[in-house]
Amino acid sequence: MYPLTLTKDGERVEVQSLNCQHDDVYRLNEMGCVQGAKGTIISNQDNVILQVGETRLAIAGNLAKSIFVTSLN
Amino acid sequence: MKTPLTIALVGNPNTGKSTIFNALTGLRQKIANYPGITVERKVGTAIINGVLHKVVDLPGAYSLNYKKLDERIAYEALIGSYEHEESPDLVLVVADATNLDRNLFLVTQIIDLNLPMVLVLNMMDEAEGKGISIDEKALEQNLGIPVVAISAKQKESIEQLKHVIGSITPGRSTPLKWLTDSNLKKASELVISEWIEPYTDIPERARTIEALRLISEGEFIGAFYTFAEVEKGKKVIAKARAIIEQNGGNPLATEVIQRYDFIGETTLDAAVQNSENKKTLTDRIDAFVTHKVFGPLIFTFVLLVMFQSIFSWSAPFMDFIDLVFVGAASWVANALPPGMLNDLLVEGVIAGLGGVIIFLPQIIFLFLFIYVLEGTGYMARAAFVMDGFMTKVGLHGRSVVPLMSGFACAIPGIMAARSIENWRDRIITIMVLPFMACSARLPVYALLIAAFVPSTTVLGIFTLQGVTFFGLYIFGIVMAVLAAAVMKRIFPTGKQTPFIMELPSYKMPKWSVVVQNTLDRGRVFVVEAGKVIVAISIILWFLASFPEVGSEEYETNALPTESIESYELRHSFAGRFGQIIEPAIEPLGFDWKIRIGLLTSFAAREVMVGTLSTIYSIEDDGEDISTLKEKLINDINPETGQPVFSLATALSLMVFFALAMQCMSTIAIVRRETNSWKWPVAMFTYMTVLAYLCSLITYQVVRVL
Question: Which among A4, A20, A27, A51 is the top mutation candidate for probing chain B, defined by the most B β-carbons within 10 Å of its own β-carbon?
């Protein structure tokens, strides 16, 4: 399990835990980034673009640090 | 349905909600603000089977757990507790068919409200293109609500939707189908029976939603309600959370996970995704547009093209508007007998209105660009690409576009700052935005640079004049960044909102929406800013025109070379005020003529040139700047025998113009956007004080050099 900031472009990941503030957890949740969701890293260059389902989420680096995932590759 | 209904449209952002609203209501719509706040309220009427229904387009929301003011309005309007919105008879929940799971999150929450509702699956054509097929009947069965699948861009789709609205008998949905976890159920029932029901006035249909919210949040943060027995409530909530925790659950996440589990089961047999992991066009474009290096470059290029176009496209329209107002002024001047009313209309009202309307073309073109960029999906990328830099200087990724708009005109920029969700980020953006060198400063810069900065060549290809010009722009940007950094420290920090944004797929903008939104912005500008400007223009006109001077007085008292206009101005209230503030302004190097120019230019910066022209008694035929320029160069102070303008004076004056808040349209729009006089007053004060200090330093330093 490692933070979203350490993923590689194109990597398939599963979201394991969201260790950020409640408000941000909820914002991520309602956009589909929820514990157990599977997604693809579109790009990771300081900020991360994560695709979950058909939603493409741009996430600031400081928030991405607190999102932990496991690799599905 | 034969009875008139109040129909509410809700849905996530980017689901085509506005397109459906426009298609249903056509031109029968009204846009206003909710009382006391700047969230827009869109209401219209739709005639279906001869019955007139009222349609309300509620603000976009990802869920009912509101974090933002506009989401709160959507929520409270739905549960019928928002006093400025009647509760709906029918809710149309618009969902993006290409992104069904995510959109169904909001749908499950609305189902829980036990309201008559229809799920409108929009963008079916795009879903098909992506290989997604959706079984509406299965979805209807699983969710327990009627489902209509449409593509809002197609006419037949809207007819189909109207048919559904016209023919259904609104029944009730079955709430809480997703809630299978007995612990969460127990916990929420506990909160309702031991606290919400006895101690709050939360409407019955919203009780479960509120209970679940409280269990997840664990306390009352962010709740807009104020309750009496908060301590009691906290105990009950802690008890409820304990029920979940004892059984190994996480109170924060249990609700969300269960909703998504339910959604997963719902769409399992109802929605099939055929193609997977194919590189889409969006992927290919994003590889460049969001790239660490190319991204900012592309963004800069887009901005350059945008501003160049705004400048060159608006020019003919602005000339035309100028011509119309000059024509109107001379027509009125001739049609009415000379006298006070004539002067007031010509010099006060028409001149003031003209000064506003002249910016309309720039505003229209700017917003046209902004809405096109937004419609294609690029805007989210621009904010994303610039977020790192903007955060460092105390702003937010979303501040980029408003700030850049400020180069054309602060007014559309301030209006565009609405897209910034965090109030503090938005206020800081608005407060520093007028430092961006807007087009109204151009005439003043051009006049003074041409007259007082030598056109020496520097570095081979540039002239000192060009460098000064560029330097003034950079100066504005630097001051904006510094001011933002300072304000970041001053303002109560609250919570940082880390950048999370949905990047929608690229698509062609919907032109009717683009045009309609752009025209709305233009209308808002003319009506709202216009009201204030006309009032202030009249006051300024009065101050500059009274007390009146008889021709006898002029002949006996005027200086030998002075025209009657010049004499009148010097003895008007404005002129006298200019003399009163002389001790304060003199250290900046400005004489009484510049002082009057400064006073009048507090209405609008470009007025300075006109005022100086009047004072220097030039026949102002077609803004003949070169003659004014020579007058400025040759003007000698009768007392000292020195030229009135030196390089130090000119630089000091330009610094003043770069920093001072001399634009009543901006004041008016800040008042409107922040809904308080506090911010415009603060803005005016700090910018003017800053301008004074910097101008003072500039004059005193350059004079000594």
Answer: A27
Query: Over the stretch B625-649, which tens digit does the pLDDT of each residue have?
Result: 456 677 777 777 666 667 778 888 8
Answer whether residue B469 is part of any domain: no
Residues of B with CB under 8 A from a CB of A: 62-63, 65, 67, 96, 98-99, 101-102, 105-106, 130, 216-218, 221-222, 252-253, 256-257, 260, 277, 282-283, 286-287, 290-292, 380-381, 384, 387-388, 391, 495, 498-505
Same domain, B154 and B213: no
- For B216, nearest residue in chain A (alpha carbons): A22
> Which band of pLDDT confidence, cut at 50, 70 and 90, is reported for residue B101?
confident
| Secondary structure string (H, E, C) spanning B405-427 | HCCCCHHHHHHHHHHCCCHHHHH
B636 vs B214, which has greater pLDDT?
B214
Q: What percent of chain B has pLDDT over 90?
A: 14
Cα separation, A51 vs A9, in Å, equals 11
Exposed / middle / buried, residue B246 (Cβ in 10 Å: 0-12, 13-18, 19+): exposed
Full residue range of the structural domain in which residue B249 is found = 182-273
Rounded Cα gap, residues B290 and B385, in angstroms: 6
The answer to whether residue A2 neighbours chain B at the CB level (below 8 Å) is no
A15 interaction partners in chain B (CB closer than 8 Å): none
Query: Per the CB < 8 Å rule, is A58 touching B290?
Result: yes
Determine whether the interchain pair B62/A60 forms a contact, defined as Cβ–Cβ distance below 8 Å. Answer: no
Min Cα separation A49/chain B (Å): 9
Give B66-84 pLDDT, tens digit per residue.
777 778 888 888 988 777 7
Count of structural domains, chain B: 4
ipTM for the assembly? 0.91
Cβ within 8 Å, pair B502-A57: yes
- Per-residue pLDDT, averaged over B147-161, amounts to 87
The C-alpha atoms of residue B340 and residue B350 are separated, in whole angstroms, by: 14
CB pairs under 8 A between A and B: 114
Whether residue B463 contacts residue B510, with contact meaning beta carbons closer than 8 Å, is answered with no
- Between chains, do B499 and A47 touch, taking CB under 8 Å as contact? yes
Contact at CB, A47 and B501, closer than 8 angstroms: no
Average pLDDT of every residue of chain B: 81
- Determine the residue type at B446: A
Query: Which residues from chain B sit within 8 angstroms of residue A21, using beta carbons?
Result: 495
Residue that the structure tokens 């610094």 belong to: B655
In a domain, B462, yes or no: no
| Same domain for B68 and B204 | no
Same domain, yes or no, for B506 and B529?
no
Backbone dihedral region of B289: left (phi > 0), alpha (psi from -120 to 50 degrees) or beta? alpha
Largest pairwise CA distance in chain B:
99
Instruction: Write out pLDDT tens, residues B521-536.
Output: 788 777 766 776 677 6
B48 and B163 housed in the same domain: yes
Q: Does residue B175 belong to any structural domain of this protein?
A: no
Three-class SS of residue B253? Answer: coil
Domains, in order of start, for chain A: 2-71 (2.30.30.90)
Q: What is the pLDDT of residue A12?
A: 92
Q: Are residues B148 and B130 in the same domain?
A: yes
Q: What's the pLDDT tens digit per position in A15-73?
A: 988 888 877 888 888 888 888 888 999 888 878 999 988 789 999 888 898 898 988 87
- Domain assignment of residue B173, yes or no: no
Mutate which: A14, A31, A66, vs B, most B CBs within 10 A: A31
Tell me the shortest Cα–Cα distance from A52 to chain B, in angstroms: 9
